[in-house]
Structure formats: C-alpha cells, structure tokens
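User: Predict the structure for this protein chain, please.
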Amino acid sequence: MTRRWGRAVIAATLLAACGAPAPAPKTAAETPKAAAPLHEGPLTDFVPAAGLRWMVVVRPAELSSAPSLKDALALLLPEPRLDAFAKSSGVELRELPAGVAAGFDYSTLYLFQLDNSGSAVQRQFSERLVGGPRVVSPHEKIRRITGVIGRTPESLVLIDGELGAVSVGSATPARVVELYALGKLKKSPPALSGAALSALPKSVGSAPLAFYAPGPFEGEWARGARGLLINAVAIGVSVRPLPGKKVEVTLVLAGDWPKPDATTRLVDAWDDLAASNLGRLLGLDHPAAAPIVSALPDQLKMTVELDVMPLAQGLRAAVLSEVWEIMDLPRPAPAGGGSPPKAPGEPKAPGLPEETP
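Assistant: Here is the predicted structure, written as structure tokens:
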C-alpha cells in the first residue's frame, strides 16, 4: 500500500535563429499571426484525470522555510544531496515554489513551476540523453525534448515562464501537458476536476504537502482501512507544519458512508496502522495528540498531530534504499550482478485523454 504513496519532483531549454538579407517590408496582409495564448493555471491543471493512479502536490520553498521542519528536512534531504541534484538537473528544490509528481500505469510525470526559459534544465537534461535529443516546438513558448536516459525513455516539456515537466517511461503524459497548454484537451478534465478527486474538499490542496489517490480501490487496497476503501471514490492526505516540531496530518475519504460505524472503523484502521511495524517505525503509535474523527454522508475525516522527528527518522529508514530514485541519482547495481529491468515501451498508456480536434 505504501508503494502508491508518492515520490517527489525533477527536470530540464534552447532556441537559435539565423538571419538572411532583410526582406522587403511586409504588408499588413503578410504580417504573421501572433501565437495563440497558452493556458495558465496551477500545475495540477496539466495532469490528466484519465489514467491517474496517485499524485503528490508540494510547495518545497514553503516547507523548507518552516522552522519546525528544519531538522527533519536536513535528515531526509541533506544539503550536499540537494546541491548535487541542483547541479545535475538545473532545478533548485529549496527555492521551488511548486512541484507535482503523478503516477500512471506506464510512466511517472514530474512538474515544476518555472519563472524563466528553463535553458539550464534543458541543457542538463539533454546532456544525459543517449544518442542526443529530439526537439519539437509546437509553439514559440513550448519545447518538447525526448530521448533515452540509460534504458528508460524520458521526455521534457518546457513552457517559458510557466512550467517544466518530465515524463519517465511513456511520453504520453508529457504530450498531454503540451496539449493542455495549447488548449486542445477541453473535453478531458485535469486531475482535480475529474469525477474522483473533485469529490475531495479543496482544503486538501491548501496544505503545502498533499497526496491524492482516485478510486475505485480494488484488491489489497479495497481490503485496507477495515474495508472502508471499498466505498471510497478518492483519498486525500494533507500535511501542515505546526509550531514545536509537529505536523498536522489530515486524511479524507470521499465516498458513500451510510453505516453509522464508519467513524469507529476508521479509528480502528488507524490503530491497526499505528500498531504495525511501519506505524511504530514512523512513531504513529505515540501521536502528539489523539486523532480527531468526523463524518458526513459523503466524507470521512481524521486529523492527527505527530512529532516530526520520529516521523522523519522512520521515513529515512523506510525509503533509504530508494533515495537514488527520489533524487534521480544512479541506481545501485543489483546484488547478484545482472541487468536492471527494461523500461516500458512507448505504447500509449490506456485511459489517457484524446486530443480535441
């Protein structure tokens, strides 16, 4: 269940022109059309609801400036590692206003807010490609760069002064970002406007760190939370820093909750998690304050305060083996030699939206 809970943010621009003898002045009829305006909005406007499995939305600069998180962030993301990431990607996470990571069946999409042309990001991305980049520019402010890093297809989309997006695996999500910017997916709702995630309260997205998962939930997920997820259409989790090295974590389950014991089952599910090996590792068995649970006909909500250092220490222990992936660093070789698994190919991921003619 923890595999579906999130990863963080990455990314990478260029243009040249050459001149010839000045042509005769153009008449008004010959004046080229101005480029069509691009869509502007939050990063989540560029993530499709179709095919989405999970999404993490984060405001790194806000989190890094929170005094209560300083020690925890230093433990999870040491300064030398952040410096190395900035040098290799062109993205300074500590100053990033907003970022998104979104998981699909065939790829993971990373988006980050951009206040310049992204030339450093494009340069670093292109240098890592095997065989050189392929660059397409469907609009004067958009560039799409594709290639292979290691054995994995990757695509970078840069929209001047707005955003950068990297798709690892299938290029389809990167292409979707481009189409949303061009206004060509009017019939395909973005993530937070889709049928599932739109059922969650907007308060989830007001936090500097939020996790989303659309339903329906099947298999192991459907059996989770004492069976509550069978009725859930979406999960939202928000994290807010509090004074005194604490964080407030709020879980919201959107769905149909006709049975009066839903809140009791949610508390029992929390107790199960807190008593598990993972719960003890994260310090969930000793919260700073007891969980507060409430219910509406279409919403279950639980809020709990946690001490941030035990949580950070547990997270560090739990994900230490995957830090290479979170920070986009070289993956350690398998213990017995052998080759890493091949990346998925380039067929279109099922369920992703079609372009509006």
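The longest helix spans residues 262-275.
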